[in-house]
Specification:
Elements lengths: L2 E5 L4 H12 L3 E5 L15 E3 L19 E4 L13 H21 L3 E6 L29 H22 L2 E7 L2 E2 L6 E4 L2 E4 L1 H11 L3 E4 L5 E3 L1 E2 H12 L5 E5 L4 E3 H12 L8 E4 L13 H7 L7 H14 L7
Parallel strand pairs: 1-2, 1-4, 2-3, 4-5, 5-6, 6-13, 7-12, 10-15
Antiparallel strand pairs: 8-9, 11-14
Helix pairs in contact: 1-5, 2-3, 4-6, 6-8
C-alpha cells in the first residue's frame, strides 16, 4: 500500500482528494493549515497533521518520512485572500522549495501539483481550446490573479528544476473552476467577499427566483466536477509522466446549458424558476482547455456530465459529507 501525503487537505480539492485516495486503498496522511479538522479525518481513518505552514521550513519536521508521493494542493488562492501579494510568494514559491527539499531529504520522488489557468489567459476567449504546451505568462490587467499566476509559474519551474537535478517525477494539472458542493459559497474578488456566481444561480433556483442569462448564452466553458478531478489525481499517481496536463470537463457547455442544468436539478417544483435573457449584460468568459493529453497519456476519462454533477452536488447538499470542515 502506497503512502500519500496530501497538502492542503482541509480545502475543497484537498479534502475530496484525501478521502477519495483513502477509499481506493491508499494510506493517506492529510496535512492542513487549520489547527483542528473538527475530527473529520478520523472519521475516515486518515491521520491529520494540522497547524502546518508550508512556508515555514521547521514545520516539515512534523511530517512522516515514509512517504511514497505528495499531492500538493496547498497555497494561498485569490478566491480566499485579500489584495496583499506576499502570501502568494511565501506559500506558493517558498512553499514549493520547502516541499521539494523535504522530498529530496526523505527520498520521495513523486509529486502532483496544480497550477492556474491564468498562466494561459492570453489565449482564452477563442473557440479553439488552449493546448497544454501553450506559452505561460500572467494576466496583464493589474488584477488579483497576476501575482498568483507569477507565483504558480515559478513553482512549476521549480518542479522542472528538481526533475532535472533530482529525478523527481512531477505531474502538474491546469484546470478552471472545479465544481462541487462546498459549505462556504463565498470567495474574494480583488479582496472583496462575494458569493460564487454559480452558487447564487443555484440559490435563486432553490428559492424559485428568476434566473438571468447574461450576454451571449452560447458562450462555452469547461465544467470540471470534483470527482473527475480526484480521478485525475489517481491517474497521475499511477504514472511517471512529467509536465503540465490540462483538465477540462466531459465536454464544453454553453452558459445556457450550465444554467439549465442548475434549474433542472435545483429548481423549486412549486415555484419553478424562469429564465430571463439579458443580452445587454457582459458576456461570460469563454475559456476552453484541450484535454487530450491527460486522456491519452494518463488514461483519464471524465465520468460526470453537468446534469450528473448537479445531481451529485444536490445529494451532498442534503447529506453534508464534508460538513465538519465547514
Amino acid at each position: 500500500m502506497k503512502k500519500i501525503l496530501v497538502l492542503g487537505a482541509t480545502g475543497h480539492l484537498g479534502s475530496n482528494t484525501a478521502v477519495y485516495l483513502k477509499s481506493i486503498g491508499y494510506d493517506v496522511v492529510a496535512v492542513g493549515h487549520r489547527k483542528s479538522d473538527n475530527g473529520f479525518f478520523s472519521t475516515k481513518d486518515i491521520a491529520y497533521i494540522g497547524n502546518f505552514s508550508i512556508e515555514k521550513e521547521n514545520c516539515f519536521s512534523l511530517l512522516p518520512k515514509d512517504i511514497d508521493a505528495v499531492v500538493h494542493l496547498a497555497g494561498t488562492m485569490p478566491a480566499h485572500a485579500n489584495a496583499n501579494p506576499m502570501p502568494y510568494i511565501q506559500s506558493i514559491v517558498v512553499g514549493m522549495v520547502n516541499v521539494c527539499e523535504w522530498m529530496k531529504n526523505i527520498g520521495c520522488k513523486k509529486i502532483v501539483f496544480n497550477t492556474t489557468p491564468s498562466d494561459v489567459c492570453a489565449f482564452f476567449g477563442e473557440a479553439k481550446p488552449v493546448d497544454d504546451e501553450a506559452p505561460r505568462s500572467f494576466p496583464k490587467d493589474g488584477g488579483d490573479h497576476a501575482v498568483y499566476a507569477i507565483a504558480k509559474n515559478a513553482a512549476v519551474d521549480i518542479l522542472e528544476h528538481y526533475h532535472i537535478a533530482c529525478d523527481f517525477a512531477y505531474t502538474v494539472f491546469r484546470h478552471l473552476t472545479v465544481y462541487g458542493y462546498q459549505e462556504n459559497p463565498y470567495y474574494n474578488l480583488d479582496g472583496v467577499k462575494k458569493m460564487l456566481p454559480w452558487r447564487q444561480i443555484m440559490k435563486n433556483c432553490i428559492d424559485g427566483k428568476t434566473v438571468e442569462i447574461w450576454g451571449d448564452p452560447n458562450r462555452k466553458k469547461e465544467l470540471l466536477y470534483i470527482k473527475d478531478f480526484t480521478k485525475a489525481i489517481e491517474c497521475a499517481l499511477q504514472k511517471s509522466e512529467n509536465g503540465i496536463f490540462n483538465l477540462g470537463g466531459d465536454r464544453p457547455y454553453t452558459l445556457e446549458e450550465q444554467i439549465q442544468g442548475l434549474i433542472d436539478v435545483f429548481g423549486s417544483k412549486e415555484n419553478h424558476p424562469k429564465k430571463i435573457y439579458c443580452p445587454e449584460k457582459p458576456n461570460t468568459p469563454q475559456n476552453l482547455l484541450k484535454s487530450e493529453k491527460s486522456k491519452e497519456i494518463l488514461g483519464w476519462t471524465p465520468q460526470y456530465n453537468w446534469w450528473q454533477a448537479c445531481e451529485d452536488m444536490k445529494q451532498e447538499m442534503e447529506t453534508h459529507p464534508f460538513g465538519l470542515l465547514g
